[in-house]
Design brief:
This protein has about 475 residues and is an alpha+beta fold. The strands form three sheets. Strands 1, 2, 3, 4, 5, 6 and 7 form a seven-stranded antiparallel β-sheet that branches. It has a six-stranded mixed β-sheet with strand order 11-10-9-12-18-17, with helices on one face.
Length: about 475
């Protein structure tokens, strides 16, 4: 059962050979040798993942180069089974002797490991045989000098926005090209290259002896889709300037609007609470929540692993299991979890193809209209708090308790009045999920998640 990408661009094949130390065929041959040796030792099953990456990261501060990092990494991981006993080992040495030593190490660990009835590879019928080409590899031949110039342009644009931009934590440019091959003794062999590029800027503003900072960044598979560095720098500066003159609030309860980039954290909390590891350990407030009304009835969470160039796109998961489009939440009701083979077996359920995490999740509302932009969401908020930054780790997934330091803006009659700081927002995730009033059309994508701004009916704001 060999998985190859459909309609592979032969031009990219030549580029891959230029970027990487090995071809996909060479990685597959190494994987085949590992599985053969594991079988010779007496393993009943085995899997290996071989990956390599090449990257460049540049940070500029006040126009001068702070750091330049070139990275080239490679690693081989081996998982070996003796019945229901499992052993793992890894190496960065691709020599035949090192490969044998690594398989030996995994075998010896498995020999002395206790049996686990849930251990084992994915069944053959679950594996992806014909993965889609999701257009994930777009190399950026970026020279160090060019990366420095791009970062300098972003930072200078921030400084040029306003004289109150007096300092900077830096502007950065990074590019990474990676590839991998996953192979198992059940006959699965699959892999592909992928890329990720980013531009960021973190300006600092000063006024009346007080300073504020904010940031903005953009990450894409294809460098041609990145915003101009000047646009990123200017917007980062505008966000920073808006924070000047921040005040404190008196303690109160009020509606809260999560700015779209911040609303991603609401989706992340749900994913963590419905992931297999938390569920089978009974360390989640959403244990046994499938079929339950958890969100407001107009809420939908949809997973689509097949978005071309998506940052969360994968044709198969980390175990070779085929991924699928699905509703995770529909009409506010939880339809499914995020499960690997192991966690699914522990729960007596079927894998959802989420070994390695979620894939392109979108949080939407059937009430959202096309003209529900950010200004429209402020009008829906009326009088309340607009949140733009959260601090700390005050989210308890066992109980759902939520309490985090925050920065934002006080809004009256749909208009921003002034920035606020030194506050804490508190509620429970249960209440937050069920009290989502609206989701904006001002959608942003960060990593494998997408949402617009999220309006929650009421939260406690702790201030003066």
């Amino acid at each position: 059962m060999i998985a190859f990408l459909k309609n592979e661009d032969r031009t990219d094949m030549a580029v891959q050979q230029h970027v990487f130390l090995h071809t996909q065929a060479q990685l597959q041959n190494i994987a085949s040798d590992i599985l053969k040796y594991a079988k010779m030792l007496g393993a009943t099953d085995a899997a290996t993942e071989i990956s390599e990456s090449d990257g460049l990261s540049v940070l500029v501060r006040q126009g001068k180069v702070e750091t330049i990092e070139h990275s080239r990494n490679k690693i081989i991981g081996v998982t070996l089974f003796i019945g229901k006993k499992c052993g793992n080992a890894s190496t960065s040495d691709f020599s035949p002797a090192a490969l044998r030593d690594t398989v030996d190490a995994a075998y010896n660990i498995a020999r002395f490991t206790a049996e686990d009835s849930c251990a084992g590879l994915a069944e053959e019928e679950l594996l992806e045989t014909y993965p889609l080409n999701l257009d994930l590899f777009h190399p950026w031949e970026l020279h160090t000098e060019d990366a420095v110039e791009i970062a300098q342009r972003a930072e200078q644009a921030a400084f040029d926005t306003d004289p109150r931009i007096c300092n900077s934590e830096g502007a950065g440019v990074s590019t990474e090209h990676s590839q991998f091959v996953l192979a198992t003794s059940r006959g699965f062999v699959g892999g592909y290259p992928y890329s990720r590029h980013c531009i960021s800027c973190v300006p600092i503003a000063s006024s009346s002896q007080k300073m504020q900072r904010d940031d903005w960044y953009m990450t894409c598979r294809c460098s041609a889709e990145l915003a101009m560095p000047e646009a990123i720098g200017r917007y980062a500066a505008e966000r920073t300037l808006a924070r000047l003159g921040a005040r404190q609030l008196n303690t109160r309860k009020c509606p809260v609007l999560f700015e779209a980039p911040l609303a991603i954290s609401i989706l992340s909390a749900f994913v963590q609470a419905t992931s297999g590891g938390a569920l089978y350990r009974n360390m989640s407030f959403l244990t046994d929540s499938r079929g339950e009304l958890i969100f407001a009835p107009h809420i939908r969470i949809y997973e689509d692993p097949y978005i071309p160039r998506g940052l969360g796109s994968v044709p198969f998961d980390a175990e070779g299991v085929r991924t699928t489009k699905r509703d995770v939440v529909q009409n506010g009701i939880v339809q499914g979890y995020f499960l690997s083979m192991y966690s699914a077996r522990k729960l007596g359920l079927k894998t959802t193809g989420n070994a390695g995490g979620s894939h392109n999740l979108s949080l939407t509302s059937m009430l959202t209209r096309e003209d529900d932009d950010f200004r429209a969401m402020l009008r829906k908020l009326g009088t309340g708090l607009l949140l733009t930054e959260l601090m700390g780790q005050g989210v308890n997934l066992v109980t759902g308790d939520y309490s985090r330091g925050a920065f934002g803006f006080w809004v009256e009659n749909g208009q921003i009045q002034y920035p606020v700081e030194e506050i804490t927002v508190a509620s429970t995730l249960q209440q937050m999920f069920s009290q989502i009033i609206a989701i904006g059309a001002d959608r942003v994508v960060q990593g494998a998640k997408e949402t617009g701004s999220v309006l929650i009916e009421q939260m406690m704001i702790a201030g003066q």
